[in-house]
């Protein structure tokens, strides 16, 4: 009997899954019933969740208060947990602040080294020429101020009087051999110098900001230490200055 069943199965029609029609091949594989059940069950769960949330929203009391409101905020419709220092111990917080100060000090040192390299390369000659200062020359009694020749007194060319640095004398100018430089090369050098000065200015501002941030963190760390007398604030901190506090002298035991 069992052999007859096996023979009958060998002659029966093979049932295959219905394939996607050729006109709909661009839509991918045809969805089967098991795929539909997964998709339908997932949709039913989402609908049930939304229904429950709508019901809770309708039954919510607008004057209700719970303590989690203090530790969370809603921004653009999304809940965000506030980072509280209470999750760390005091020693851990102090260590993290110390690490922040060390990192800022390291960055400030790097900026200071870069500023020093730029200043040594640029020599700041333009700034020196723009700095106002005085140089007094004493004349003879019989000499009038209009007759005073500054170029002759300095022993240099009249076109170099405006310089305060790199102002060679006439005998040095006669020995000097000038290289022929094209106007394009001069323009390129001037542009490169302007870019270097702009970079130097930005790095000086950056170093100043890091210095203020470092001092502010150091003051905050000092304020958190236990003291018998509370320090008095002398000046409020701004973007260009760290806060200034006056600490009372405490005798160490």
TrEMBL record:
Database matches in InterPro entries: SSU_processome_Utp11 (IPR007144)
One annotated Gene Ontology cellular component of this protein: small-subunit processome
Compositional bias segments (type: Basic residues): 1-16
Subcellular location per the Swiss-Prot or TrEMBL entry: Nucleus, Nucleolus
Key words of the record: Nucleus, rRNA processing
Disordered: annotated span: 1-30
Predominant location: nucleus
Pfam families, alphabetized: Utp11
GO biological process: rRNA processing
Record-annotated membrane-spanning stretches: none
Family: Belongs to the UTP11 family.
Quaternary assembly: Component of the ribosomal small subunit (SSU) processome.
Function: Involved in nucleolar processing of pre-18S ribosomal RNA.
Protein name: U3 small nucleolar RNA-associated protein 11
Species of origin: Anopheles sinensis (Mosquito)
């Amino acid at each position: 009997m069992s052999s007859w069943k096996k023979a009958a199965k060998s002659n029966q029609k093979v049932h295959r899954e219905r394939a996607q029609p050729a006109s709909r091949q661009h839509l991918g594989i045809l969805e089967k019933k098991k795929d539909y059940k997964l998709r339908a069950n997932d949709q039913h769960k989402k609908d049930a969740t939304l229904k429950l949330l709508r019901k809770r929203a309708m039954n919510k009391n607008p004057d209700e208060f719970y303590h989690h409101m203090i530790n969370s905020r809603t921004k653009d419709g999304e809940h965000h947990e506030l980072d509280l220092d209470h999750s760390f111990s005091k020693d851990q917080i102090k260590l993290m602040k110390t690490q922040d100060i060390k990192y800022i000090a390291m960055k400030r040192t790097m900026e200071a080294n870069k500023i020093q390299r730029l200043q040594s390369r640029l020599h700041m000659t333009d700034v020196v020429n723009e700095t106002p200062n005085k140089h007094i020359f004493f004349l003879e009694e019989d000499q009038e101020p209009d007759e005073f020749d500054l170029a002759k007194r300095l022993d240099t060319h009249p076109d170099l009087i405006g310089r305060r640095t790199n102002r060679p004398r006439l005998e040095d100018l006669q020995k000097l051999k000038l290289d022929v430089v094209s106007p394009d090369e001069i323009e390129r050098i001037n542009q490169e110098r302007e870019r270097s000065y702009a970079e130097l200015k930005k790095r000086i501002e950056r170093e100043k900001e890091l210095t203020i941030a470092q001092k502010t963190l150091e003051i905050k760390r000092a304020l958190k230490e236990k003291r018998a007398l509370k320090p008095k604030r002398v000046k409020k901190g701004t973007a260009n200055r760290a806060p200034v506090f006056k600490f009372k002298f405490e005798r160490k035991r």
